[in-house]
Each structure stands twice: as C-alpha cells, then as structure tokens.
Amino acid sequence: MRDLSHDLGLLAINSATVKAWSLEQLVEGCARAGISAIAPWRDIVQAHGIDKAGKLIRDARLDVSCLCRGGMFPASDEAGRHAALDDNKRAVDEAVAIGARCLVLIAGGLPKGSKDLAGAHAQVRDGIAALLPHARAANMPLAIEPLHPMTAADRACVNTLAHANDLCDELGQGLGIALDVYHVWWDPDLPRQIARAGKRIITYHVCDWLVPTRDLVFDRGMPGDGVIDLRAIRAMVEATGYAGHCDVEIFSAQDWWKRDPAEVLQICVERHQSVV
Amino acid sequence: MRDLSHDLGLLAINSATVKAWSLEQLVEGCARAGISAIAPWRDIVQAHGIDKAGKLIRDARLDVSCLCRGGMFPASDEAGRHAALDDNKRAVDEAVAIGARCLVLIAGGLPKGSKDLAGAHAQVRDGIAALLPHARAANMPLAIEPLHPMTAADRACVNTLAHANDLCDELGQGLGIALDVYHVWWDPDLPRQIARAGKRIITYHVCDWLVPTRDLVFDRGMPGDGVIDLRAIRAMVEATGYAGHCDVEIFSAQDWWKRDPAEVLQICVERHQSVV
Question: What's the whole-model pTM score?
C-alpha cells in the first residue's frame, strides 16, 4: 500500500500548469493546497525579482524541484551562440538564487534556415560543455530534457533518452537528465535507457498524452486523461533510486489554462495520488 | 551531374498527394505529366474496382511503387485482430492485382482504452507474422513503415527504423521496410539504421517537415518547403543499393489538397529534380 501522505510530499507543481499565476500566487496556492514543492519557469522568477523570489520561496519552506529552463543552444552565428551561453549562465545563477535542485535544459532546434541536424547536435553538445564549468562552480546540476521528436526542428533536437544518455557519457560530472513522460513514453527503448540513466535522472515530469492531440505544443493532458502508463514509468524511474518529486507540467491552451488555477491544483493533488 | 531525365523516371506520385483525384484521373494526370509511377491508396483502387484498376494501370504502362496501406493490427479482442488479418490478406491480393512492388503496412496504435504499449508492439509482431505466409505465397513483399512518434497512440506504434529493423530480424523473408523521410528525419540513429536496413528498404517516400507544423497528421510540406535534408537522406538510402522510386506523399489539408491536382503534379516534378 502506497503511503499517500508521504506521496503528497513528492508532488511538485510546475508553474506552466497554472500559467495565469505569478510566483507569489503559485507559492500561496501551493501552501493552501498542502503542496510542498514547485518547479517555476524563469519568467515568473524574473518578474518577481531573483533575490526576492529566493526569499519568498525560502520563507514558504517550499522545495524547488527544478528551474525551467535554459538551453536553446544552436544559433546561426557565433554571436548567437555566445548570447545563448550568457543567458544560460544567468539561468544557472537564478537556479542557485531560488535553491533549485537543478536547472532544466532543452536543446534548441535547427538554426533558422538550416537543415544540418548533425550540426545542431554538435552545437548542443558544445553549448552544454561550455556551460558546465559555470554550473559546476555554482554546484548547480544541469538536467538535459529529451523532448518529443515532433519538436526537433524548432525547440529541441535531443529527442530520445538514449541521446541524453550519450551526452551525459560524453560530458561527465554536472550533467544529468530531466525525464518527462510526455516526451519519451512512446519509445520502445525506454526501459533499457531508464536503467542506463540510473542516478542521472534528477527531475521527473508528468502529464499525459491525449488522443487526439490537437496541437504539437499546447495540448498536453492532466495525468490520467491520456494513454501513458504513468505508474509503470514511475516504477522504472524509482527503480533507479530516484526518490525526488513528480513535477506536474501541463501546457494546455484549450483546457487547463482556461480553468481556475486553484481548482487545477486540487485536481493535480487527486491525480498524483490516484494515477501518477 | 545527376541525369535528370533518368531521375524523372524515379518519381512516383502517391494518391494522397492529389487526394481529390480518382484512380483514373491519377493515371491520366501522370501520363500527361510524363510521370511513370504511382503509389495508390486502397480507397481509389477499390472505388475503381480491383481488376479494372489492374487493367487501367497496365494499359497505361505505369509502375506501382507500392500500395498504401495495410496494417493496423492491434485490437481489443480476438475478433478485432481476426478482422484486421482478413483485411490485410485482401490488401495483399489487391497489391498483386495492380502489380504493386510491395504493400505498405503501418502498425496501428493502442487498442481503445489500452495503455499497454508493449502489448501493442507484440500484437503488431504477431499480426505481421500471421500475414506473412499469405504474402509470401502471393510473392508480395510487405513493407513496414515506421511512423513518427507523434502517431504512436492512435496510428502506429512502430516509430523508429530501429524497431522496423528489429521486426525484420525477427520475422524474416517477405518483410521489408517503407522509409518515409517525414517520420524518421529527426532520428540521430538514422544513418546507422539505414545502413543496417540495407536491401530491406523497398519503398522510399518523401515530403517535408514544415516549421511550424500546425497539425499532427495533415500538415506535411512539399519537398523543399521544410527542414529535412532530403538529398542527404536519399544518398544514404541509395548507398544501400536502393534504386527504386521516390514516392511523393503529402497530407496537406490546408494547402496542397486545396490546389489544382495537375498543378501539384507539376510542382512535384520540379521539386523532385531540384531538391529530392
């Protein structure tokens, strides 16, 4: 029998799920709902002010499972790559300021006008390699998140857990993995790659794949409303020793973003206990 | 220098690209445009009558690069699986009747209400295994087509060339691969898996990945309008010894399906020569 009161302590709310809320509203809403962890995006942290955000979160005794997100490394020219690196260093510093357990990275896609996928892969590897010294010095783990292959062109050209594992093999200490079920559930190689990832999985995100899916980015489902076998994937992840949060991250322009965020939070709590 | 007149002989028009046309219109349209091969879907073949369709195509001296499509194996119960097998046997017979070089199979997705992806994979394998004796007896190659991972839930749970290669390894003679760039271009493992596939690739489909992509199924691009490095992938495929057609297959509810099919054909000819 799962210990539900303990299990609730493993729920984290990603700010993208309650997009209408500011950081302050997110912190207050989670406190009211008995939720002890959040995963904010940078926009609401920056809007609140980085240092003030850290104090707000510490005062509320909230865990920060991760900061979303850095990355987006490929660019058409050296100036673009340099700007991306600078922005990623700032993201590391923001993650430190709010006490995040890691900074999530998504790869970025093809530079505008490019069809050179292998070149983009190399830019991602080189970008993470260039960021790692700053992250290591700050003692802030980076978590590369494989995104669904349907995002390869314009958002992220690291699309499988195998590729993320390869990057960790190559780049070494300081780089881990953010695993989001939405992006990897379809992969027949998933059980093997989760076992291979082992302790590299440092943050775990959940939502669901809806049938039909009406948009490539903004039509994710609440856990339980789709076809992903969430319990099975969580069991595989926890078998690696992962004992961290389940971060509910739902992009949903037509459904959940239109509802009262407090109601959404309550449903996240229920679904976390019943299906995640 | 590419021999363009020879190369035009390698262009095949998939009936999905000129969806408004009947088989008769497709045959006449291709004859007018100097195109020597077609890849019809079953709907227009059946609408014309199977035997009449064979005669029409033979009389026009058209090559049939493949018949689209069989497959869709997983079902909730034994009756459903039996019905799928029966329908696939008819598809093999139709492919023979029109002189197709192969019958394309797509896997099918999760049965309604199921979250058992591994179970669906097993049903696909078992379904192809059950179909193979009929296909071998008819001397009709089957071509399993890996579909993009975004189709895993509801259309096809074989989503990588690696998975298709594994099925070929397991099921043996009579099963080959239909490779469509749209579904596999994102895969960092593609060069290795194309080399592994070798002579198994028996039909090759092209279109393009648009940025942005507005629909998971019906927003494919004309070759050259997207981000896929078509020449590079074709070179890898031809390096395996593949000397068959490039079948232009474009699902495009908002763009190409709204245009005059004869104009679409002309653009296919031009793009085949300039970018495929």
Answer: 0.97
